[in-house]
Structure formats: C-alpha cells, structure tokens
Amino acid sequence: MNLDELRARLDGLDRRLLELISERQATSREIARVKRSTGYPTRDYAREREVILGVRANAAELGVPADIAEGVMRLLIRSSLTTQEQASVAARGAGTGQRALVIGGAGKIGGWFAQFLASQGFAVEVADPNGGAGSIADWHASTLDHDFIVVATPLGATNTILRELAGRRPRGVVFDVGSLKTPLRAGLNALREAGVRVTSIHPMFGPDTELLSGRHVIFIDLGMGDALERARGLFAPTMVEQVVMSLDEHDRLIAYVLGLSHALNIAFVTALARSGENAPRLVQMSSTTFDAQFDVAARVSNDSPELYFEIQHLNEYGRESLDALAQAVESVRSAVQAGDAARFRELMVGGQAYTQGRRSVTQRRA
C-alpha cells in the first residue's frame, strides 16, 4: 500500500477504536444499572487490578508497550466509572420535587453545585449578580422557601451572608462550601441559634472534577444532626469519601493540606522567577522531579490569588504550617552548608518513614 492508502487504513482503525469506546460506555451504563439493582458498589479495586494485569499480559503478547496499554486502560476505566457514577446520581438522587438555591451559583464551585443538584432532580435557582437568564441578581429578593440553600460565595462575603440568612430563618438546610471555617464561626453560630438547620461542607476537589471516586468531602458537625445527614445524603449516590470533623479540627488540618502545599509551590515558583534563569531554558534541561514540581506550581500560580491569600491569611491556624515550612527549609539549608551528610540523610529517611504506605492512597485518586 502507498502512503495515502496506509493513512486511510489508519483512519479506519481510529474509527473502530472510537466505536469500541462508545460500545464500552454503553456497557458501563448497563453495568451501573445492574450494580444499583443488586446493591453492588460502583467501584471495585480488586476488579480494576485484575483488568490492568490482564491488559499488561495481553500487551506483551501483542507487542504493545505495557505502560502505554495500562495508561489507555486506566483512562477507559476512569471514563467508565464517571459514566456509572453519573448514572447512579441521576437514578438515586432524591431531589425530585424539591428546590435548591445556590447563592454564588455563577462562580466555579457554585456552578458545580448547581449542576450537581440539578442532576439529582432538584429545581435549582441561582442567585448571583453575574448569573445568566433564569437567575436572580440578589439573593435577598428570594423567598428562601427552598429545601437546600448553598452559600458558594467568596470567603470574605460568606460570613455576612450566613448572618443575614439567620435573620430570615429559612426552613431548608443551609450549608456553605468555604475552604476555611473559623472565619465563618459567627455566621454559622447565628444560624444555629436561630434554629435553622445548618451544617458546613468543604469539597476537596476543583470545579472541573467529574469523577468523585477517591475524592473527599469534609462535613462539619455543628450539632445539627438532621442537617448534617441531609447534606451527606446528597453525596450518597456518588463514590466520594465522606469525612466528618469539628470546625476547629478542619482549619487546623487545612493549614497543612492546603496552606502548606500552596505556600510551598508559591515559594518554589517565586525562587525560580527571582533566579534570573529563563523558564524555557530550565524546562529544556529539566528532570522528572523538576517537571512534576513545575507543573503543580504552574497550576497554583494560575489560580486565584485572592482565594489563596484568604486561605493563608484568614486561617487561625495558618501560621503554624508556614513556620513549619520555614523551619524545614532552614534544616535542609543548614545541613547542606555545614556539609552534614548524616543530618541530610536523617531528613530524607524521616520523609521516607512518613510517606510509607500513604502514596498508594493518593495514587488511587489519580
């Protein structure tokens, strides 16, 4: 065959691949239906391992690089799980006949919640000055007769809104989705004292997330059991991992989970920017470690400075993690400058011990 004929053949193979993927998606939807009817969990890690091992074995027989075959299969598994989860949410969602208001629903995370609730059958109303057709510009104009009210506004405005909601005493469950909770303590307490069913949640994922398997949603127990359980029930059809904790414990841990990781990446890219070295030149001769760190730091740098500053500045426990970072950097610097190989090794061995057994957990979220 000549070049044009070979390319035509390749186009045909690509078409067949897409047809097979489409067939696989359809089968995934049917599997989701069977799992729901039998009470079988959506995700089965043992089955995934079995599939991956089988693919690697088949790849060896066919002369296909095993890593490429596994990478493709993991993408297909993730797509299949997303299809099954979305089908489960639509089928098991309890929102039919109920109404929800998302204050700040035109924002990124607010938009995610508006879509998530709509997929469960809720009639969703968005209150946001930047909202489109069908939304209201000012939530104060709402009757607040909804079954759920979600406050998805910037952290600096959320506490005021919670306090104002307490004055209106809505009948439905109210919860915020803020990254920090101690700055919202007054507003959350005002709602509780007013007898409003209130809780607070923190989705530990971004607004572009489609598959919730391996992701976490943190629920803050404010002593209103019914509100807590109703909010948790919204995520029952998904594969998300639910974690319940107190308000203060949340912010203490978030100081490390978000505050420390954000600060580390901001410091990393700031050091590069101030080094005088050209970024393309550095990337040209980079290592695997540099590429991975640079990729994370680039994503952090391109996110919202206002949000990241709030996470650092408004957290009552934030200084603890920043001090820990400064002390850790100083430990590395002093060991290197002193030529203390034993101390440097001690730092790395300590890191190995701390991460042992934890990497497999984080890798499952990929």
CATH topology of the largest domain: Rossmann fold
Would you identify the CATH architecture of the largest domain?
A: 3-Layer(aba) Sandwich
Structural class: alpha/beta
Give the quaternary arrangement of the chains.
single chain
Poorly predicted regions are none
Number of strands: 7
Q: Which CATH class of the largest domain is shown?
A: Alpha Beta
H/E element order: HHHEHEEHEHEEHEHHHHHHH
Q: What radius of gyration results from the CA coordinates?
A: 24 Å
- Count of the separate structural domains: 3
At the fourth level of CATH, the homologous superfamily of the largest domain is NAD(P)-binding Rossmann-like Domain
What is the gist of this entry?
The chain has 366 residues and is an alpha/beta fold. The protein contains 14 helices and seven strands.
Provide key terms for this protein.
3 domains, globular, Rossmann fold, 7-stranded mixed beta sheet, 6-phosphogluconate dehydrogenase C-terminal fold, Chorismate Mutase Domain, subunit A, alpha/beta, 61% helix, 366 residues
